[in-house]
Amino acid sequence: MDTGAGHLAGKHIVLGLSGGIACYKAAELCRALIKEGATVQVVMTEAAAQFITAVTMQALSGRSVYTSQWDSREASSMAHINLSREADAILIAPCSADFMAKLLHGRADELLSLMCLARPIDKVPLLLAPAMNREMWAHPATQRNMVQLQADGATILGVGHGFQACGETGDGRMLEPAELLEDVIAFFTPKVMAGQHVLVTAGPTYEAIDPVRGITNLSSGKMGFAMARAAREAGAQVTLVAGPVSLPTPRGVNRINVKSAQDMHVAVTALAQDATIFIATAAVADWRPAAPSLQKIKKDGSGDAPKLEFVENADILASVAASDAARSGKLFCVGFAAESHALAENAHAKRLRKKVPLLVGNIGPDTFGQDDNAVILLDEHGSTELPRASKLFLARQLVGEIATRSRAARS
Ligand code: CTP
């Protein structure tokens, strides 16, 4: 089974470390890049070697680490040329304030800055993961340098917010290795959804019976979160309306948390105005208690269970698909179908009933909570099966399919 790993297969990344306490995170980042199939060549400044040893980085990357332009392994001492020519990207993580200033001025007094200056600027992208104290980050000099470095062609991956090694709290932490990995994968992903505004629903909804009880379902939200991540990787602006799940928000995705189907409906109706693609992966509760109690329902001693009455929730997907935006072709709608049996027939009928151009069918009990899935795609031309794979791998495939179909639908 395809696990979805290896999204950086064939990519050669030069991972540059400048001096900063965040060097400890570079070890995990190196591992993560390799796990995704990249080859990693580590280059460290002298200052970086004060924070982490070359031995650690060598063991993790499986390649000897370069720290000096006078390295005798390189013919004619041309490490700065040779290393940059082979790279698909140079990623500086951590990138200190001092190293940013150095890059800005085109200084080249040690191997890492020399290599960045000597890189073929059109062929080898430079990605920077800044890491510094919050005051250093906020300083006008650093902010000015950041703007100019972007103008010079570098990609700044941003910084995290939180507790800093110096004891202060604020902006300037290096992003976590998993976040940087997401950004690097996104950087290399073809931008088939550039310019699209994608709205995704995900997870279950929760319908209150009283303040402490409610009904929900087994949806984990993983497929919807994977769709949001894959759409963002493909260059879309993504808004994710999530039911109650405890999943981390994909990088660069705007998340709106909701609880009930009614909340989700209100949020989606407003957000759909600006969307160009709507992907409904949420397992929306079909019914809600007609009159949820404002206070906890107590046992009355009779031994009888309370009688609950239900009303049907609005069908969010069907209502968006019936909107002017969808009918005029401005908004492309994609539904999901969670079935327990007769997948193709039920999904086919559901696509027609909801009036959506594309429906993705899956067997709910086989996939709820799992990391993998197998789906069938149905459109007006027929059906295509996508075999079992990780949800992220499938989501990336689906984003490609949706991008092609939505383009065709508009032309
Ligand atoms: N959906 C929705 N609003 C609802 C119910 C479903 O937007 N109130 C969307 C889901 O997000 C999904 C699609 O409709 O994209 C199909 O959902 P599913 O639960 O498979 O089907 P139902 O419409 O609930 O039909 P049934 O329960 O009869 O299978």
What descriptors fit this protein?
Rossmann fold, 5-stranded parallel beta sheet, binds cytidine-5'-triphosphate, 8-stranded mixed beta sheet, 19 strands, alpha/beta, elongated
The coarse overall form would be: elongated
Residue windows where pLDDT falls under 50 for at least 5 positions: none
Give the C-level CATH assignment of the largest domain.
Alpha Beta
Largest sheet: 8 strands, mixed
Radius of gyration, taken over Cα atoms and rounded to an integer in Å: 25 Å
Protein structure class: alpha/beta
Write the layout of secondary structure elements.
Elements lengths: L11 E6 L5 H13 L3 E6 L9 H8 L17 H8 L2 E7 L1 H9 L5 H8 L7 E5 L3 H5 L1 H12 L3 E2 L3 E4 L5 E5 L3 H12 L8 E6 L4 E4 L2 E3 L6 H12 L3 E6 L11 E4 L3 H11 L5 E4 L6 E3 L20 E3 L3 H6 L2 H4 L4 E8 L3 H12 L3 E6 H4 L4 E8 L2 E9 H20 L1
Parallel strand pairs: 1-2, 1-3, 3-4, 4-5, 8-11, 8-13, 11-12, 13-16, 16-17
Antiparallel strand pairs: 6-7, 9-10, 14-15, 17-18, 18-19
Helix pairs in contact: 1-2, 1-8, 3-5, 4-7, 9-15
Bound molecules: cytidine-5'-triphosphate.
Question: What does this entry show, briefly?
Answer:
The chain is of the alpha/beta class and 411 residues long. It is built from 15 helices and 19 strands.
Q: Can you describe what's shown?
A:
- By secondary structure, the protein is α/β, with parallel strands linked by helices.
- The protein folds into 2 domains: 12-188, Rossmann fold, CATH 3.40.50; 197-290 and 309-410, CoaB-like (Rossmann fold).
- 35% of the residues lie in helices and 24% in strands.
- The strands form 5 sheets. The chain has an 8-stranded mixed β-sheet with strand order 12-11-8-13-16-17-18-19, sandwiched between helices. Strands 2-1-3-4-5 form a 5-stranded parallel β-sheet, sandwiched between helices. Strands 6-7 form a two-stranded antiparallel ribbon.
- A hairpin with a 2-residue loop joins strand 18 (372-379) and strand 19.
- Helix 1 packs parallel to helix 2, helix 1 packs across helix 8 (177-188) and helix 3 (79-86) packs across helix 5 (111-118).
- The mean pLDDT is 94.
- Bound molecules: cytidine-5'-triphosphate (CTP).
- Cytidine-5'-triphosphate binds at residues 201, 261, 280, 282-284, 286, 313, 315-317, 335-338, 350.
